[in-house]
Amino acid sequence: MTALLSSTTTPLHHYEGLNSTDLQVGDDDGFLTPTILRDVPLRVVTALEQWMLEGASGAPFLPEDEVEHFAQLQDELRAAGHVEPAANLAPFGVLALDSAPTSAATIRQLIAAGVRCEVDTQPTPVNTPRECAHLRHEVARARLGTTLPERTVALFTSPYLPDPARTAPLMREDQPFVCLTVGDNAVEISPVVIPGETPCPGCQEAYRSERDPRRAIIAAQLRTKPVPALSAGTGMMVGALAFQVIAAYGYDVGAPPLHAVVIDRRTLQAGRRIWAFHPACPCQRPDP
Fold first, then answer.
1. Reduced to 3 DSSP states, what percent helix, strand and coil does the chain have, rounded to the nearest 5?
2. Which domain of life is it from (predicted)?
3. Do residue 26 and residue 120 come from a single domain?
């Protein structure tokens, strides 16, 4: 598989009715001198775009006389420095449901390790439109492919406690997920929640409600608050530890742990919080 360093391909002088075009392959950031490819058949342009986005080395839809031309253009782009070998791909993927700083820090470490990621997010209370667009751009430039593998973990950030409106769809769809919960004093990285197999955030909230009868009122108020800001160093630490949690599941390193990682924001010390099933939580019972 290949990863394309250049992120722009621009048709030049394409006239209606013609079957070829001149193509400029350049770099958004200006680090590489753009390469001009002359008289490229339109089907070959499509094959090059597929190669850039997905790393697909073949082009089965090309006629025989254009396959050699496609291969020559690949060699030309490699020689010009626009293409480099991609990292070995991890056997799992991550679906980011937002681009909050903690989620973004985790995604950056994942794509650096060859994990295919997708940013399935719209601007939400936990991220701005600019953060959303920036993370999408970073993932696209990694050129690790556009299709997530079957073993995929969803990732999202919540302020103070996981929002049931975000976890419920994942539970219904049997989608494993990790939630990063940012509070004033600590950040909690959930274990990988596997619906029906491991305790869920609802179990933990049920235990809190038993200890504090006012918990439901407090929780409703906390869900309306924005995500507390984190320092750059704390965000990087959260990203590194969340990467560790997700990678252990992705590489199938033993049984998923039944504890969350809790980072004290003042001391940056990391500890554990045990997660357990709550007998009243429906997450253990399959839907009828």
1. 35, 25, 40
2. Bacteria
3. no
Q: Which two tokens stand for residue 176?
A: 């494993």
Report CA torsion sign: 129, 166, 275, 258.
Answer: negative
What's the CA gap between 188 and 227, in Å, rounded?
A: 13
Structure-block tokens of residue 148: 């997530």
183 and 263 fall within a common domain: yes
Strand, coil or helix: what is 216?
helix
Q: Which residues contact 97 (CB under 8 A, 6 or more apart)?
A: 103, 120, 121, 154, 155, 156, 166
Q: Which domain holds residue 217?
A: 93-274
Residues 128 and 75 grouped into a single domain: no
Phi/psi for 17 (5° steps) reads 95, -15
- pLDDT at residue 54 in the model: 59
Q: Do 212 and 264 sit in the same domain of this protein?
A: yes
CA atoms lying within 13 Å on the CB side of residue 210: 10
Q: What region, left, alpha or beta, does residue 180 occupy, with left being phi > 0 and alpha being psi -120 to 50 degrees?
A: beta
Residue for token digits 């709550």? 278
Q: Tokens standing for 42? A: 């339109």
Burial 1-37 (b: 16+ CB within 10 A, else e): bbbbbbbebeeeeeeeeeebbebebbbeeeeeeebeb
Query: Per the domain annotation, does 285 fall within a domain?
Result: no
Summarize the confidence of residues 46-68 as an average pLDDT: 70
Q: Are strands 93-96 and 152-159 parallel, antiparallel or unpaired?
A: parallel
Question: What would the pLDDT profile of 206-236 be if each residue is shown by its tens digit?
Answer: 999 999 989 989 988 888 888 888 998 899 9
Which residues contact residue 30 at a Cβ distance below 8 angstroms, ignoring those fewer than 6 apart?
none
Integer-rounded Cα radius of gyration of the chain? 23
261 and 172 belong to one structural domain:
yes
Q: Is residue 2 part of a domain?
A: no
